[in-house]
Amino acid sequence: MEANLITDDRARTHFFQLRRKSLIQSDVCVVGMGPAGLTVASRLAELGRSVTILESGTTRSLPRTRALNAGSHAGVPYVGLEESRSRQVGGTANDWNVFRGRKVGAKYVPLDEHDLRDWPIPWNDTLPYYEKAQQVCGLGPFDYGVEPSARAQRSPFPIENHGLINGVYHFGAADPFTRRIPGELRRSRQVQVLKNCNMIGLGLNRGVSSIAGVRFVDLQRREWLARSRLVVLACGAVENARRLLLHGLDLPWLGRGFMEHARDFSLTFHPHDRSLFQSAGFYDLHRTDQGSWVIGRLGLSPELMLGLDLPNAAVSIIPYPARPTQRTAWSRRARSLVRRLRGGEEIRRYGWSSKKIEVDTFEAFRLIVNVEQEPNPSNRISLGSAVDTFGDRLPHLDLRWTTQEQERLERLRDVLVETFRSTGLGAVEGDSTALPDLSAHHHAGTTRMSRDSKGGVVDETCRVFGSENLYVAGGSIFPRAGFANPTLSIVALALRLADHLDSVLG
After folding, report:
1. pLDDT score for 328
2. CB-based contacts of 236: which residues, under 8 Å, 6+ apart?
3. Across the strands, what pairs with 313?
4. Which of 18, 272, 323, 448 is deepest in the core (most CB within 10 A)?
5. Which residues contact residue 184 at a Cβ distance below 8 angstroms, ignoring those fewer than 6 apart?
């Protein structure tokens, strides 16, 4: 059953008349239809549970809805809270920017054991859910090594004896979150999908410890209560923290530990042998023997990170065109690639290792380094002075890149320079003091998972400390975010949460 509350751009309004009885009989209310909320709702419906799922937007990005993402920020240059979030079905999957032909999607990779050292759950407990998440995201087998795809014509660089490691990202389209799962939920008898419904608060049963449901308003500003036994906030790291702050929750880490992924564009690799542009196709988008689409990457071994106190990181290798003005079919793609690289975007890929391309089309490789950010409590979401259309205070982000983080990044650059030199691959040069870009749109932290309320906001089951039935899903629960694109981990942990909620419902 779907309450389809949509107003189009011509201001013609069509309302499905909500019935209170339909809103108070669900087992779980999920707020947010991004990858986290969609996964929780889909899995619970599969387990036979009734679910109400609320979405602030619709299937399109509309100006009035985008305006609700407004907020202020201070610190490093940043794209802003409105630009880095998406209020619509599918969440930020609508903004993904990795391409395979005409397919738009994202890179997938799990957190590793090193990343989970501050988590209250062991690495082995996440593995079954990562394997399930691969299927939810429309990916192939859960294998992020080099064996399924390395070949003589696409050879990984010989760097394993120097502290670096080779691995892959999987490529996945946005369709599971923008089309497939929303469609399944609309057709499910277990799920009520309420679009264009904005959360304005939490209803209480007995004080702050028991949540009766979610208070929300429709487009006519009529107020409703979506009553349920359990509530899951899946609104992203900014909005999850904001809603809990507005609710009056008082926990030391609430809103703190905000993390982005730093992207370093300062390094250029000049190979000694120009044939590397054809033989290094492992780092280009390619298909494995198992049918998966993957992109090669360089990573750091745990021993190297611990020995030199380096941040976790991954290196993408992108060719830089030498003559983008030459009149060939590839020149248009080369010019597009240059524009996008100069715009600071990491967009893959144009078949640069294809035999159709002359090796002298390219002059160098751009090394794009994705770097983890420390969970610094000073990086935080708080409530600003401005208010939204409903009278609720908008979020304010404080985001800094510390001197210690910059020093670790500069040591990492030195390692890359020395590794490429000592292996005979070529010379790496760049600005050793350049600051990274923190506008990756990978929000994490703010409701971090911990063993107790002194160190976080939710416990190992994702339940908010001090609450009986309020849970959080998404990247906001990450104590550490590593270098990894977060979606695979978000989906895996959402599956884990759904199974736990099913056990709580009995």
Report:
1. 38
2. 32, 34, 85, 91, 92, 443, 474, 475, 476
3. 371
4. 448
5. 42
pLDDT of residue 98: 84
pTM given for the model: 0.91
Token pair listed for 327: 């009149």
C-beta of residue 129 within 8 angstroms of C-beta of residue 492: yes
Residue 98, classed as helix, strand or coil, is strand
Could you tell me the CA-to-CA distances from 165 to 146, 206, 297, 365 in Å, in that order? 10, 53, 9, 18
CA distance 497 to 489: 12
**Helices 123-136 + 487-505 axis angle, to 10:** 100
How confident is the model at residue 352, as a pLDDT? 58
Strand, coil or helix: what is 225? Answer: strand
Q: pLDDT tens-digit profile of 323-368? A: 544 433 334 444 444 444 433 334 344 455 554 455 567 789 999 9
* Cα-based angle 364, 369, 372 (whole degrees, multiple of 5): 180
Beta-carbon neighbour count of residue 19 at 10 Å? 10
Residues of the chain with pLDDT under 50: 1-22, 324-350, 355-356
- Are 88 and 229 contacting, i.e. CB atoms less than 8 angstroms apart? no
Q: Over the range 276-295, which residues count as b (16 or more CB within 10 Å of their CB) and which as e?
A: bbbbbbbbbbbebeeebbbb
Domain ranges, ordered by start, for the chain: 141-173+262-371+402-435
Q: Say how many CA atoms lie within 13 Å of 380 toward its Cβ.
A: 12
**Three-state secondary-structure class, residue 492:** helix
